[in-house]
Amino acid sequence: MPPDDRFTNCLVKHDMLRGSRQVHRFPNGAAAGEAVFVPRRGARDEDDGYLLSYVHNPDRGAGDLVILSAQDFTALPLARIHLPGRVLGFHGSWVPDA
To answer: pTM (2 decimals)?
Structure first.
């Protein structure tokens, strides 16, 4: 396993048009992986959907799949699914065919 100092305990949402950012922080010692965006069915706005990220929970010694609202990024997670072990994370995104 790579050391947790290669990861961070937060996710950052950048708004390139406004030049702003929002930070979603997890507890100290947590290690958040790369988030994947999943659009909400019928979405019209760029951030109308969900962010899924594996987050290492050091208290349990295992990972959680954390689901955030992309439009309410700093709010509490919509869901947290406890996993039986550590997962290093998603990598990459997929888009539907045009």
So the answer is: 0.82
